[in-house]
Structure formats: C-alpha cells, structure tokens
Amino acid sequence: MKLLFDFFPIILFFVSYYQADFLTNNTFVGNLVDTSQPDYIVATIIATAVAIIASFAQVGYHWFSTRRVEKMHIFSLVLITVLGGITIMLGNPAFVQWKPTVLNWLFAAVFLISMFFGDKNLIERAMGEQIQLPAHIWTRLNLAWVVFFILSGAANLYVAFYYHTELDPDTRMDFWVNFKLFGLMGMTIAFVILQALYLSRYITEEDDDSQNKPE
User: Which 3-state string (H, E, C) describes 118-139?
Assistant: First the structure.
C-alpha cells in the first residue's frame, strides 16, 4: 500500500493524460488550457497540473495522518512544481520528462553521501530497527540503491529523449507516459523483491543462530 501511495501522483498523471479530452471539457483546470496546441501537449499540461495538485494532497494527507512529512514526497513535490510549472507555462513536455531522472539521481546522491556522514548509512537508518545485519551488508544494500536510482534515472532519460526518435511526438509521448508508470514502478517492485530475497538468507541465519543459543 505504501508503494501505491508513493506513486499516487504518477498514477493520476497517467490517468489524466489519457483522459485529457474529458478533463479539458469538464473541469476548471481544463478550461485554462490552450487547446489549439497539439493533443499530446494539451494532455501533458493537463496531466502535469493534476500531478502537482496530487503531490500537494499527498504531502498534506501524510502530514495530517502522521504529523510528519517524508523527504521523498517533499523532493518530488518541489521538482514537479518547478519543472511541471515550466512545462505548463512554456507548453514544453521536456521539463516534466526530466523530473523522474532528476529525482532518482538526487536520491542516488543522498544515499551515496549518507555513507560518509554519521555511523549509519541511509538504508541502515531506515531499516536498522527491524533487522540486524553486518556493517558490510548495510553498505552493499545502500550501494545497490545508489546504482538502482542511477539506472532508473538513465532509463527515464533514454525513453523520454532517445527511444525511437523517428516516431511522431504523440506516439513517443504515449510511450513515455506508459513507461513512467509501468516501467519505473515495475523496476522498483522488482528491485524491492530482489532486495527481500537477498535479505531473507541473513534473516534465516539470524533466526537459526538465536535458536541454537543455549538457554
């Protein structure tokens, strides 16, 4: 459920992009869009506006529910507001297409820097209370997340700007919107599963050691 909550603005971006005609004709936001622009630009502007609103709602709901905010949500909110705002003002989808790459590479930098400050890296700080692991395993996990974020950002950049450049803009934008939801979410789910499988052997070993200890 948390993963779906984290992807909430992206899911609404996807839905709004493909329902742009309905939103343009039936909502206040849609009435503000210049419909003389190409369809994919109109759809991107509508979807970006909805994603910005959804990001504010996400942060607000989490605050009222827990009385705290998640840094990931804040970073995402700032980027979608700035880059998405530029896309809306200029009618240029490229800015909002950069957002997943900038966000993922920002996370990669934060995770990497966390290894050099304090006693624990970011992964150990997040999971250290739930599971006990040797220091070198925490280091591997943290580096794995760094690599994952770098690859995710690079994949988004490739699909957005270099994949099948011979296709028409509408088709390329459709493909990127699909990748933004299903591709990046699929990569995240697959990575989390692989991480869980990697950790499972250490959890098993820990349980075995505790059972073999003398009373």
Answer: CCCCHHHHHHCCCCCCCHHHHH
